[in-house]
Amino acid sequence: xxxxxxxxxxxxxxxxxxxxxxxxxxxxxxxxxxxxxCPDGQAWDKEVExxxxxxANSFNDDERYRAAxxxxxxxxxxxxxxxxxxxxxxxxxxxxxxxxxxxxxxxxWALAEQFYARALQEEPNDLLARSYLGMGLAEKGxxxxxxxxxxxxxxxxxxxxxxxxxxxxxLRGGRLSAY
Length: 179
Hints:
There is one protein chain. Helices cover 57% and strands 4% of the residues. The protein has 10 helices and 2 strands. The chain has helices at 2-10, 23-26, 33-36, 61-73, 77-85, 93-105, 109-122, 127-139, 143-155, 162-171; strands spanning 42-45, 50-53. Helix 8 (127-139) packs parallel to helix 10. The two termini are 24 Å apart.
């Protein structure tokens, strides 16, 4: 595992794909009924105007992902995990990145690191995974490895994006409690 992570930390293979769109980075999600009213395992279904099981066919993976992101930002980590569980492609970089985020925020750095490594193996240009990985490395005191992630974000076209700014703030001693 450490060998794979080391290779990912230093890797340069750039592809044109982006695992998470920049629109997902720049602004925290607006709270909706999903995070304010729905119990764990459910999200707001606009069509029927009520909370519905996230596994229901009325939701597609993009909607489940947005629900997971909204719930994670609201601090509802278990509910965010249930929304991720309902997604069809469990090996996608965006699912793995958010699983890493949830593990890190739950205090399981070893598991978070595994998820981030798998996300970056799936999509080396996932700037959000690199930023969250860098934040975790910095939190653990490995500032040099966190700086390498910052360098990778910039080398992969991520200058002046939220992933770069968030990791820079962490490296400068700022706190991003929600991240």
